Amino acid sequence: MTLKHWFKRGLAALSIATLAAGCGSAAPAQRTSAAPRPALWQVKDRDTIVYLFGTIHLLPRGYQWRTPKLDAAVARSNGLVVETIIDAKNPAELMAVMARLGVNPSAPPLLSRVPADKRAALQAAIARSGVPAAAYDRLETWAAAFTLIGTQFRSIGLHGDEGVETTLKQAFTAAGKPVGQLETNAEQLGFFDTMPEEAQRALLIASLDQPEKVRDQFNDMLAAWVRGDVAAIAKTFNDDMAGSSALSEALLRRRNANWARWIEGRMGQPGAVLVAVGAGHLAGNNSVQAMLQQRGLKVTRVQ
């Protein structure tokens, strides 16, 4: 699989993907062919438990992923921590960050940022998005790609309001339990804003895939996640980034190290907390769990 295909799968497992997808029309309910068992771990000492749950941030309507073990962890946890908190009902802060990082009036025309043989497809994708073509010319390449990929995600029935984090945040809020974040919106979008232009253009080209191809790529990732196949997830998120060490460092290793330090510090406080982050961060040699183990903490898979 090429780097551009990693972007497509990877974006659906990054919190900020809920921004790209927005809210679309309802899609038919989806069900797994077997009982779901997405991976769940715990880091535990005498008076503290940190649960680690790998997530998919965008899902079809009605997709079945809850399990008794996860529900027990939710009930036991005193709070929830996610990658970043996106308030869909009050998006002003996020929109301000997008405007600050994603708008560049001096950027070259968007059509000039793809090869000549991709320009007709880009023009068609822009038309489908409903956003005026001139507006795209003022965007950083990654921001234009986000807008177009959002159209792709909506076209195959994926929704941020059906994602795992959204569901978990609603459950914790309803129970009067706090919800925190590991990164601000600006920090998470900043990872994309600082990507090399070549990588941003690969993401833009990925936004031109036909919906059928996008659906197939996403379904492969979703099937691996819901059956708890961490090895398959690691291949998607880690092995396929081997061609770009800068991206791997920025989007996976550095962030995983930051989160491992946070979890290590949280072990000094009593009580239980559920940490829910994209499944790719909990798979592979540079996973959060691997970094916790390097720090001398024991990580146990419980589902």
UniProtKB/TrEMBL annotation:
Q: Does the keyword Aminoacyl-tRNA synthetase apply?
A: no
According to UniProt, the name of this protein is TraB/GumN family protein
The record's keywords, sorted A to Z, are:
Signal
Signal keyword on record: yes
PROSITE patterns associated with the record: PROKAR_LIPOPROTEIN (PS51257)
InterPro entries from the UniProt entry: TraB/PrgY/GumN_fam, YbaP-like
Tell me the leader sequence span.
Answer: 1-20
